[in-house]
């Protein structure tokens, strides 16, 4: 019986990759220094997996920014607009091209926008979307995969297993950039390059290769299924001497089961954490030659594996296939898990005993193999931890359960319909056409971060800390007033993270010191752990919103994170339905919304960037999820008067298939990401005739480039052609926390100027 891992966190145990990339982008270290930092992380990762006894250890799972972008560079899928980077940049051409595609490029006389970024299936990881044209060609452009396999083989020998995103999923996760073709039709051009890559790895001594095809867990058309058959039969006919593991995850194969088990590969990996019931379906159809990788250890959460449950699945598979055809593995790449629980020395010991991070999950995989092969002594400690969690008084709060049981439809409904509310809000605020605002956060400078650090270390009193935060808020308000923004924000200088900040003030949440996971590029987040019933003991944001509002005559937005986003961006308890936990959070946010309104805050933003992210991969499950997710938002937002304006924010999502549910949220104003797609996402809102107000983002905050006024005016005019002008707001794509002040100020000044010019142009035409 073999063990394997599908992928390992690449940020480093102390976020070394984040620091090295940001230093490289700032010009403070060389490419050689950046590569050295990467080498140390990879060696540490490989050594940890080797020591854990894993038989097949991934390589090429490391990335400086994103594994899908890595594939685009490997395959030469480089949009034409980046050609000047290769011709004009004198040194480090390939890596600077790579980062330009991810982040945009604004130097050396060039000004090039970044590629689109969106969520990796239903996770909070973001990938760079491949761009395809009808005449797209593929060739090996970037050869880093071969160097990495060579390095891995020196340490791991034949255990080194290269990992690639599979050819069909690579195409399906991309986007056509011109009309008249379907990207899946490019499969015949793409497969020969995959064959070349795989054969070169075989020649280097690779015995196994993992091809990730997460799209096998999606609803597939007949043409897409045919693309899978063509791709893998073509690879099988032209590649020999290497074992291919086809990896699926995040949901069941369902109607794709026959397709998957009959593709000509050596092994198939399935996710038995998300979809344990699919094991019976796979075992019923699996051919005699196929090995089966059982994803029984949760790669996306932090809870200790219940060995008895996992062993029931393993034993069922062994009973049908025998031990020789079984591989034990995590459910998916451990990219989505924190690295090492041993680094957490301040956790409640009882709760810590229920948890496992990436390093511990490797040990779970190995122990499950040992138990399955007869070493039952490892079972007792695991049983005790599982029993402790089920019965702990820290988990269950009866008052919270009673309040959930008492929720009615009235709790999820605003007093009046939107047209009535809109009229009252316009009378109250008297905004111009194209009112301007930001999404909420302003740059978290080193000075601000050091304040929090000094407070935690006791080097600063709470009073001194509060005074410094008040100064930062006051300065931000003065600057916003001078710039001419219509609705101000306090800047969120007191907040470490949009989810962590709230979780720290809610009961039922636990926080780690080093539980970082990658969100995109160098952006890492430290998700809270929801271990028990959730409640709000006291006000969370009122103090700072009241202070900010007292410093200006302009409207001040209260800023909150929504219940679905807090759920999605946390490690969630798995002992009750997710919708129950979401409703607990919704009631806590509802209490805060009520308190803000009572404190005189007339505009309240409840951010829900993750509501699309939580959508199940299969359409048959959409309605149930959207029903409880939308209802949770409405519970959080519906306690206010009609004249109080509720905003929400969503970013980096495709909205076409859920536009009806977005409308059902009934937020007075929604702000969305649209700049990278050049307002393309607005077509969904236009075609639906979205009735409420909307702020399409006019500049990309995930890129350091500063868009010009003309560029933003053009986007606003595009928006006005699609939606009623009186319903349009002007704002960035997302919060500005990760940006620097000089670029932030320049971009927002351009944004306000663009709004003024757009008003003039619209009024002149009228």
TrEMBL record:
Enzyme Commission code: 2.1.1.14
Cofactor(s) required for function per UniProt: Zn(2+)
Annotated Cobalamin-independent methionine synthase MetE C-terminal/archaeal domain residues: 434-756
Keywords, sorted A to Z: Amino-acid biosynthesis, Coiled coil, Metal-binding, Methionine biosynthesis, Methyltransferase, Repeat, Transferase, Zinc
Binding site for L-methionine: 439-441, 492, 607
Cofactor: binding comment: Binds 2 Zn(2+) ions per subunit.
Molecular function (Gene Ontology), one example: zinc ion binding
Catalysed reaction, written as an equation: 5-methyltetrahydropteroyltri-L-glutamate + L-homocysteine = tetrahydropteroyltri-L-glutamate + L-methionine
Residues that, per the record, bind L-homocysteine: 439-441, 492, 607
Binding site for 5-methyltetrahydropteroyltri-L-glutamate: 18, 119, 124, 523-524, 569, 613
Coiled coil: 448-482
Cobalamin-independent methionine synthase MetE N-terminal domain span: 3-317
Entry annotation: catalytic residues: 702
Positions annotated to bind Zn(2+): 649, 651, 673, 734
Involved pathway(s): Amino-acid biosynthesis; L-methionine biosynthesis via de novo pathway; L-methionine from L-homocysteine (MetE route): step 1/1
Gene Ontology biological process: L-methionine biosynthetic process; methylation
Family: Belongs to the vitamin-B12 independent methionine synthase family.
HAMAP family cross-referenced by the UniProt entry: Meth_synth
Function noted in UniProt: Catalyzes the transfer of a methyl group from 5-methyltetrahydrofolate to homocysteine resulting in methionine formation.
This protein's name: 5-methyltetrahydropteroyltriglutamate--homocysteine methyltransferase
UniProt source species: Pararcticibacter amylolyticus
